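Person: I have long wanted to understand how a fold can be written as tokens. Underneath my words sits a plain record pairing an amino acid chain with its backbone structure tokens. Those tokens are not coordinates but codes from a learned vocabulary of shapes. I should like you to check that the lines agree and flag anything odd. The protein I mean follows directly.
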Amino acid sequence: MNILKTLAAAALAALTLIGGAQAADEWPTKPVRIITPFPPGAGPEAVLRVLAEKLQRKWGKPVIVENKPGGNGFIAIDAFKRGATDGTDLIQLDNVHLVAYPALFKKLPYDPVKDFEPLKPLFLAPFFVVVPTGSKYKTVADILADAKARPGKLNYGSWSVGNPAHLGAALLESMTGTEMQHVIYKEVSMLYTAVATGELDWALGTMASAGAMQRSGKVRFIAVTSPKRLAGFPDVPTVAESGGPAGYEVTGWTTIAAPHGLPKAVADKIQADITAALAEPDIKERYATFGYETFPVTREQFQAFIASESTKWTDVIKRAKVSID
């Protein structure tokens, strides 16, 4: 009897696998919607639209990008949670939704583990340490020396509480035992204008957010927050090379996520098709426009990366005593 039960279970498992593979082969049977919390024209949204065009050709069904900005991304997440569960409703998530907000908010309108199946990171975006063109700060060491000499007097800016630019600066404070003032601006453009005019001493910014100001000569990039120098900016040292702490790294990233519990065969298909699209030359050219880098990892490696990022930023948030009620 035990042998018969074992054989029956094995047969059922085989049929399930075959059924799942067949379902994946036939997926999608209707248009696919990708909800994004980013507004039209934003860097992450722009590359998502290029990806959607490629997936539409691959899948033979319309792939619609639906913008739902605002509310810390909660508007987009709510629409996703109320959507289809068969993978035809996907969502673009910012890294903060998965690794920072769970520690920042006392209560979230979503569960980062139970509601999402992160499939593939779309890009990594390293940050630069941005200062006014005429700033006396030539290196990160200069900023840190002044911050230690005048505790609480230097200021840096970002566009909200808990975004990578804010938490990245808080991480620098934590790693160096310094204390600086965080100033919030309603719009990203206002933030880097404030750096350019000297209203702010410095800020973290990506090429997408601060690149225009840097190209016009209004701000300078004195360091990059990645482990190595970027190909497009060979003269910009890493933070460690600029006199900052070793191991300091800050990146922004987004991911495409499906509903949690999506059949593995379908999830694997979506991930594989996104991976193939991201490897195409014109995607890489588009990425170069925004200073984005591809992040070629398996889903298992990505899950480990998310767990590591969550631990890192939760620690920063607790040390800085940052919270959003």
